Automatic annotation (TrEMBL), chain A:
Swiss-Prot/TrEMBL keywords: Coiled coil, Mitochondrion, Ribonucleoprotein, Ribosomal protein, Transit peptide
Name of this protein: Small ribosomal subunit protein mS26
Organism this protein belongs to: Bombyx mori (Silk moth)
Pfam families tied to this protein: MRP-S26 (PF14943)
PANTHER family referenced in this protein's UniProt entry, alphabetically: 28S RIBOSOMAL PROTEIN S26, MITOCHONDRIAL, SMALL RIBOSOMAL SUBUNIT PROTEIN MS26
TrEMBL record, chain B:
InterPro entries cross-referenced by the UniProt entry: Ribosomal_mS34
GO annotation, cellular component aspect: mitochondrion; ribosome
UniProt key word Ribosomal protein: yes
GO MF term set: structural constituent of ribosome
Tree of life domain: Eukaryota
Keyword match NADP: no
Protein name: Mitochondrial ribosomal protein S34
Keywords associated with the record: Ribonucleoprotein, Ribosomal protein
Length: 212, 195
């Protein structure tokens, strides 16, 4: 594609690599294959050289003048500022300080008044909330006491029927006299027949109904 | 070994032409005091530039490529008042010895060349147009007087090698510097471009 001589004489690399591409570290010597590759010396015509020299000289002279002008300007400005700050501006600075101080005081007063008001409101709100809570608690307690007293009364009433050593014999007698049979039977229609030895008999109309 | 071996040098070319100052001075009688040398890069100027060796000193071992030489320097046809010392640049292989028979011709050529003292460089330059506007605005803002001739001082690099004079306070300069491109020295480069 490229003849070797043109490849050797080139001044600009044929393939420009990006910075991230792999390349030889700087501290390694010239590659063996590149030892005899000597970059061509750039040549400019005499005309161009003279003209460029003139233009560059022009530019440098102009820029030097501008830079010097602004540098001196800066120094002058700085010196005037410094001298002013020594006497005149001290008074100004004090005035400014006083003004700032007063303003700050005013702001502080405003803020503190607002804070007082806010605190008052907050305390009132808190009081209200606490009172409401206390009241609710009281009510709850009252209800609880009421419930408890009712239960006690109930139990007291019930206690009349309790079996005690005094009426134990009586209770036994009563129990023997009135035996209780908890057995029962249920037929297909869901009718309940209590007692173990109960004889099951349907009424007449019921039998008809059952036959139907 | 074959006698007809041709040495082929490989490497980058250089603008330097000659030997290092140590080489020249070391091979001369009385270390070349009184002889004239030239730095070949200074030969680019039309006016003669050369140096007369006045004093030669050796250097410590670590600096064996260098030599400390005091010279009477003539740069661009002007002889410098003080003796110049060459030390840092003495290793450069750019010095040439002038043969004794040519010395007188070289020394006389200073007188034949025109007096350069008649060129006086200006000490001020007019501001560029935009800068003028800026200055006017700036001064208005600060409440300063705006009447101004819009000239600013020029500064030059100070060097003993400076050949052209710079105008003092009331001196009339022979050259005028202006903002802008100026007149081209090689108009052929600007063919077809209105300037």
């Amino acid at each position: 594609m490229f003849s070797q001589s043109s490849y050797l004489k080139r001044t600009i690399p044929l393939f420009i690599q990006t910075a991230g591409a792999h390349r030889k570290p700087r501290w390694l010597p010239v590659a063996k294959s590149k030892v005899y590759r000597i970059p061509k010396r750039p040549t400019t015509s005499e005309e161009e050289r003279v003209e460029l020299l003139r233009l560059h000289n022009n530019y440098k002279t102009q820029m030097r003048a501008i830079r010097r002008f602004y540098h001196e300007d800066m120094i002058k400005e700085k010196s005037t500022k410094d001298s002013a700050s020594s006497e005149m501006s001290q008074q100004l600075e004090a005035d400014e300080w006083a003004r700032c101080f007063e303003l700050n005081e005013k702001w502080n007063a405003e803020i503190s008044a607002a804070r007082e008001e806010r605190r008052k409101l907050e305390i009132a709100k808190l009081e209200e909330y606490t009172l409401a809570r206390m009241e609710a608690k009281d009510k709850e307690l009252q209800i609880k006491i009421k419930k408890a007293s009712e239960k006690i009364r109930e139990q007291k009433e019930l206690s009349k029927t309790f079996i005690t050593p005094e009426n134990l014999d009586e209770a036994i007698d009563l129990a023997i006299a009135n035996p209780t049979d908890y057995n029962y039977a249920i037929d297909m229609k869901g009718m309940k027949f209590e007692g173990r030895d109960t004889i099951i008999s349907y009424p007449k109309e019921d039998k008809n109904v059952a036959a139907n | 070994m074959a006698t007809g071996t041709v040495i082929k040098y490989v490497g980058r070319t250089t603008d330097f032409k000659g030997k290092s100052l140590g080489e020249i001075v070391g091979s001369l009688k009385n270390f070349g005091v009184g002889r004239i040398i030239v730095r070949s890069v200074f030969l680019r100027y039309p006016e003669p530039s050369f140096m007369k060796i006045v004093k030669v000193q050796t250097c410590p071992d670590e600096e064996r490529r260098r030599v400390r030489v005091g010279v009477e320097k003539t740069f661009r046809g002007q002889k410098l008042p003080n003796i110049t010392e060459i030390y840092r640049t003495s290793y450069k292989t750019d010095y040439q010895l002038i043969p004794k028979r040519e010395e007188t011709r070289l020394l006389e050529s200073i007188n034949t060349i025109g007096n350069k003292a008649d060129v006086i460089l200006p000490n001020s330059i007019e501001m560029p147009p935009l800068m003028k506007l800026f200055i006017i605005k700036d001064h208005e803002k600060k409440g300063l007087e705006t009447s101004k001739d819009f000239m600013m001082p020029l500064s030059y690099n100070q060097s003993p090698n400076r050949t052209n004079k710079i105008a003092k306070a009331n001196e009339q300069p022979t050259i005028k510097f202006t903002m802008g491109l100026g007149k081209p020295v090689s108009p052929s480069l600007y063919d077809g471009i209105p300037l």
